[in-house]
Amino acid sequence: ILGVRDAALIAILRGAGLRRGEVVKLQLKDFNQETGSLEIIGGKGNKDRLVYLPDTAISMVNRWLSVRGYSSGFLLCPIRKGGEIQYRSMSSQAVLLIVQKRANQAGVKSFSPHDCRRTFISDLLDAGVDLVTVSQLAGHASPLTTARYDRRGEEAKRKAVEFLDFF
Predict the structure, then answer these.
(1) Active site (catalytic) residues
(2) Across-strand partners of 19?
(3) Is residue 25 classed as helix, strand or coil in its secondary structure?
(4) Cβ of 98: how many Cβ atoms within 10 Å?
(5) Buried b (16+ CB within 10 A) or exposed e, 118-156
């Protein structure tokens, strides 16, 4: 049961690039199973936004919901040692500890939830998604903040000008 919940947590962090403070506030009603959307209410700067999960993440969240049940409340919940789901919010610290524990089990050293966010942003930029769209998905007030995550380097710039074939 812990593994199913933790997989859903990591899928949301990686698939939507959420901050720890945003993921712990998610309610069941904020997740649309059909579209894979998550409504972020009161994100950083008290801003609301709509984000979308990729299909693999939707499957992991749906698997968690089949265990959690569909009663209203927090989407991700603490689980007692006996396997009892507590229908209350998790703490941001709990999210950090879960991600670090799972990373350690996978043999990954020094990993945090923010690494999921950095990877989410970098992968979208690598895939050619425009900076403004990535900024909106990340919940950044300015695309300049998003640009700081851009690690594509000189090769990306060189490839970009290939689109300007004059002849």
Answers:
(1) 19, 44, 114, 117, 140, 149
(2) none
(3) coil
(4) 19
(5) eebbbebbeeeeebeebbebbbbeeeeebeebeeeeeee
Distance from C-alpha of 139 to C-alpha of 142, rounded to nearest angstrom: 9
Structure tokens at 161: 């000008």
Residue found under tokens 């942003």: 121
Query: Could you tell me the two tokens for 69?
Result: 């049940």
Is the pLDDT at 155 greater than 90, yes or no?
Answer: no
43 sits in the region (left: phi over 0; alpha: psi -120 to 50; else beta) called beta
Residue range 59-101, pLDDT digits in tens: 999 999 999 999 999 999 999 999 999 999 999 999 999 999 9
Q: What is the pLDDT of residue 120?
A: 96
Q: Is the pLDDT of residue 149 over 80?
A: yes
39 with 56: CB under 8 angstroms?
Answer: no
Its pTM stands at: 0.91
Rounded distance between C-alpha atoms, residue 35 and residue 38, angstroms:
9
Q: Is the pLDDT of residue 24 over 80?
A: yes
Look at residue 54 in the predicted model and tell me its pLDDT: 97
Reported for 30-33, long-range contacts at CB under 8 A and 24+ positions apart, including other chains, are: 30/75, 31/61, 31/75, 33/58, 33/61, 33/62, 33/65
CA distance 117 to 163: 29
